[in-house]
Records
---
Amino acid sequence: MDRIIEFSINHWDMVLALLATLAMLIWTERRKAAPSVTPQQATVMGNSDDALMLDIRSAADYKSGRVLNSTNIPFAELSKRLDDLKKYRDKPVVLICKTGQTAGSAANMLRKDGYSKVYRMTGGMVEWTNQGLPLVRK
């Protein structure tokens, strides 16, 4: 314990940088646009809660393999096609992207448009396929 205190005193700038990094990490995690759900939870929501499974990957990625009963609106087109989703405003919307990263931006967009039940699928389609879950291919 004495060594930790001594290190902290002698290298206060490093300790301060560590604390600032941790604070930014916590702040970023709290600002995430929507709660995340696992692929299994997303499946349950789609089956029992009548959730919209919204795949925001490109059309080519969508055609190569998709979740059953999912709807494809590429992220690049989402802001222009929000009117297509109005009927789902009061239902859960599960966002599916390639790795789970783009879904946060899409969730922000939907939340600003009045959607309150927006979820991100953790790991996106990469996680879905890693778990060996079924895909629909055209």
---
Amino acid sequence: MPRRHLTINGRAETLDVPDHATLLEVLRDRLHLAGAKPACERGECGACTVLLDDRPAYACLALAAACEGRRIVTVEGLGDDHPVPAAFARHDAAQCGYCTPGQVMAATALLAADPAPSDDAIVRAMSGNLCRCGTYPRIKAALRELADAGHGVPPR
């Protein structure tokens, strides 16, 4: 089995990973990072969103082998004092919470790229993340608060 060198949440990891293993499988099954969620497992829902080199990516579609040499950040890597999850909590932007980590990662990427996005930019950036509970207005309110404050939030 090939040995893979991955950088996840700022830590270098060396793992034996088969060529066909997805990043989602490695994160959850090998590293026990359960933030990225398996849901559709075909890149349609966004529950498994992580950051690859500061851009949102579906971990269910990314082969772990293709992530060597890239910076991977999961929701666990943001830390407890990150402003995006805090804004989600203030605005009650999570009901069941299943999609929340993916939503948080997509929002973090948006605000890192554009600290003051328009409402249209927020809707576009978040359109790849589905929420069955329908918290979209609350998610938008959380991001609007951060955008109005000019919160550029670089991932850690």
---
Amino acid sequence: MKNKITPTNKERIMREQDFIVSKTDPSGRLTYCNQIFIEFSGYSEAELLGQQHNIVRHPDMPRSVFALLWETIKSGNEFLGYVKNMHKDGSFYWVFATVTPSYGEQNNIIGFFSVRRKPDPQKLQIIDALYHDMLMAEKQAGSRHAIAAGRQVLDNVIQPTGKDYREYILSL
């Protein structure tokens, strides 16, 4: 489904009252998306449903951030983080994401629920620089070691603060 889209420098900025909402199955395939998601992604609901959520992934996003996201939510915990997404036309938009597991009757994870809102532009300056460094480390390490290399850059920033990832993100 995902065509080769060329990223542009055009930014789409969420409105203060916007909340992008989506639900996925356990493998990350979209089962629900609200109108704000449709608007910011540029895809129709029919184009989105059944597709992997990463249909909106921007190539500037470090793989290690998504590895951390999946590790966190698959363990049953809530993930908070900044994500740069890409519209179908190549433009981009930043979000502050909260992703939580959804549970079935046997208390098993049956999918994930995500709410994204407009991020603080001042915090994005810090995150954009950090993600750039993480992405460069991933590229230098090569595909096999990319996630570990990006995670090391992130750990080198967070560890001196004495905080875990969640505390660090919330303290920005």
